[in-house]
């Protein structure tokens, strides 16, 4: 045994011994040369190395501040200020009332909502208004690589808050350290959650000496938090900061621009209307971008001087050299100008044009996250469908804009509207127009976008859509191609059951109408016969609106709308084109293709030297040679039968109180002529 080679670890032990001998020779002892002696000293050396490791951070690592932010620095939070006052300000400023009544004040508040909605700023404003000490910590700051150190940080954070009571502990991105323990694979996360729960339970007035300590958490994923943290006695209440609506955006813009020098042409109401889907952070970015454009405009005005003469012998064939010369000239000119006087700067202002020019440069957060915002489509872009438009106004526009009228009559808001009919008739265009007219936030989803091959991911995507809609209330959720997302259950989907799970999740979300206040669903499809019947019952998609092919008069109005931006010859009669027999069965999409093909015919005939381009009647004649109806006569009959069968199924469903068997009985069978197997007779 003694003749065996020394273990490799002895080399490290020897290095450690030499290091300690060099730093503390007076305390070092004679080292044994044998391997046995070296092995005997190993525990002692390991212990000394551990003693030299940095100790856990002291309480001084958590900075106590007193924020100066106030509610007046906010805009668009009037709806939650009363709740904040009741839950936070009263306990912090007058804890004696709770002691007198023998009740415990709220200990924790969870702020949740999309990124950029002002959760962190609101926490600072709460501390600023109440005058309490403020301990802000980002969740990742608590995480440590050594066992037990993360829990020690949590304990020290709460100890320091109690020592400075009344105080507020603010944990930003709290979901990073408090995931659901059943889904957590790391023991450290479970220990942090357990320590946070234990520390929160100690924040009673008895333990804090009658001085309240409140914990505020902020997250944009509240459903990822451990359920034990969200129970009463810990995070007692949850406050949602959603995407601001149009009036809230106007108030935010006014607050942000209150310290800016603005011209008299500012129209905040119009600017708020042009910024759907923008959160507070996006509006801050918009004001900064507008200020940058204003500064550029100011410099171009103040530095407007004749261009310097071109020196002889300079070869401007080299673009790079010319550009560098221009840059040097501009930079030298800016540096050479003396500081502007107050008289020079007095007339300078940020005007409305700066904000309008900044809009295309700022992308709203909702669009970056994959949610579409309200498109620039209005009723003027819809050239027909008067009856369908009137129904949409009554079903969606009025409830969103005048909810008090429905409340006075004891009526509930419609849960949803299904637009169905032949393809290309304007179903999607109608949904975009009604969303624009309502001024509500808009989330557009195409059916296949939510489908995922992994189990549970499709249902999670559906939940996220409705969570985002609730946070963005009032909001319109538009599902395009609903038949791809919600097919009849029992139909084959490859044996993986994804479609059935998605349908079940959608039905669950549609049933949560009370929780979905001011959230309306609009769906569009050209295959209503394969949509699960449970989606079409009253209480889910209340209104079924058939969008038919346009009549001759409708075609004329559509052509006028499509050709509004085209260069037409005065002799062209669009009404004659609309009543042409070859236009029969043309959908709106077909008419759009017809106008485009007529314009292409003009380009074919013209040359690069042609100065005037006009669309004539002959160009429409040429277009008729290549554009044909996309919906055949047989297809039209099928869609008309669909319309009749859907009406019958709704009557059966209503009379039988939503019995699924009766709904199925009203659906068509496979043996009924020219209809697909799932369509009704």
TrEMBL record:
Keywords (A to Z) from UniProt: ATP-binding, Nucleotide-binding, Repeat
Organism annotation: Aphanomyces invadans
Basic and acidic residues: compositionally biased ranges: 28-43
Region feature (Disordered): 22-63, 649-681
Protein name per its UniProtKB record: AAA+ ATPase domain-containing protein
Residues in coiled coil: none
Regions that span the bilayer: none
UniProt-listed SUPFAM superfamilies: P-loop containing nucleoside triphosphate hydrolases
Domain named AAA+ ATPase: residues: 105-245, 413-551
A GO BP annotation: ribosome biogenesis
Domain of life: Eukaryota
Gene Ontology CC terms, in alphabetical order: nucleus
